[in-house]
Amino acid sequence: MSPENLHQIIQRGEGIQVEFKKASFELPKNVFESVCAMLNREGGHLFLGITNEGKIEGVLEEFISGMKSSFVSSVNNIAQLNPKYYLNIHDVVIDDKKILYAYIPESSQVHRYLGKVFDRNEDGDFDISNNPDLVRQLHLRKQGSFSENTIYKVITLEDLRVDLIQRSRILANNNKPDYRQYTYP
Q1: What architecture is domain 3-131?
Q2: CA distance linking residue 80 with residue 173, whole number of Å
Q3: What is the pTM of this model?
Q4: Which of 10, 125, 134, 142 is the 20 to 30 Å CA partner of 93?
Q5: With bands split at pLDDT 50, 70 and 90, how would you rate the model's confidence at 183?
Q6: Which of these, 58, 64, 60, lies nearest to 94 by C-alpha position?
Q7: Neighbouring residues of 42: CB distance < 8 A, sequence distance ≥ 6
Q8: Which residue blocks in the chain are alpha helix, DSSP H?
C-alpha cells in the first residue's frame, strides 16, 4: 500500500479496522492483543509510531529492525499467538517520519494471545475469554464465513482429485520431513 493511501487511512482516525500505537523504541505491550483482536474480527491496519489521537511521531531509526524482528517472532510463536499467523510489518515514511505498518487480515480461525481470546469493538481490544457467549458467537461467526470450517456431508472421497491429494502429500513432506504419509482407501 502506498504512503499516500496509508496517510488517508491515518487521517480518518482509529476505528474497528484501524489501530494506532505510540512506539518510539519498542513494541507496546498490548500490540499483540490488537493483532489477535483484528485477526478475530474484521482484520485491519496496525500503525506503530502514531499516537491514539493520530499524531505521527515516528519510530526511532535504530530500533526499527529490532521491533520488526520481535513482531514477526511473536506472531509466529505458538506460545504467544495461537494459532500462529504469518504477518509482515513494513517501515514506511509518512510526513518525513518512519512508522511501522502491518495489514492484518481477518482470519478463518479463532486466535488467542497468551491464552486469552481478544475481540475488537470500535477502536478497542477486549479480552472475551471469560464470556462463553461471546467466544461461542465468535466461533459461530467464523464457521459461517469461511468454507474450510464447513462440513459438506454430500461430498465423498470419489469427489476429490487424487492428483491434488498426492501433490499435497509431497508439499507436506517437503515442508515437514517427519510428516507421516497417509494412504486413503
Answers
A1: 2-Layer Sandwich (3.30)
A2: 26
A3: 0.78
A4: 125
A5: very low
A6: 58
A7: 16, 17, 106, 120
A8: 3-12, 31-40, 61-75, 132-145, 162-175
Q: Could you read off the pLDDT of 46-88 as tens digits, one per residue?
A: 999 999 999 999 999 999 999 999 999 999 999 999 999 999 9
Neighbours of 16 (CB within 10 A): 16
Dist. CA 169–CA 167, nearest whole Å? 5
Alpha-carbon torsion, ordered 143, 148, 151, 155, to 10 deg: 160
Q: What is the per-residue pLDDT for 148?
A: 61
Which pairs with CB-CB distance under 8 Å and at least 24 residues apart come from 63-72? 63/24, 63/25, 63/26, 64/91, 64/98, 64/100, 67/23, 67/25, 67/26, 67/27, 67/100, 68/100, 70/27, 71/27, 71/31, 71/100, 71/102
